Amino acid sequence: MRTPEDNHDYAHESSQRSQRAGGRLRRRTAAEASQFVGNKERLYVVLGQVGSGTFGKVFKASNTANGRLVALKLIKMEAEKDGFPVTAMREVKLLQSLRHENVVQLYEMLVCKGTVYMVFEYMDHDLTGVLSQTQFEFTEAHLKSFCRQMLAGLAYLHHKGVIHRDIKGSNILVNNRGELKLADFGLARFYQKRRKSDYTNRVITQWYRPPELLLGATVYGPEVDMWSAGCIMLELFTKKPVFQGTDEIHQVHVVYKIMGTPTVEEWPGMASLPWYELLRPAEPIPNRFRELFKKWLTPAGLDLAEKLLTYDPERRITAVQALEAPYFNQEQPPAAAPVGLSSLEGEWHEMETKRERDKKRKREEEGGGVVEQE
Question: Which stretches of sequence are listed as region Disordered (predicted)?
Answer without folding.
Answer: 1-25, 331-374
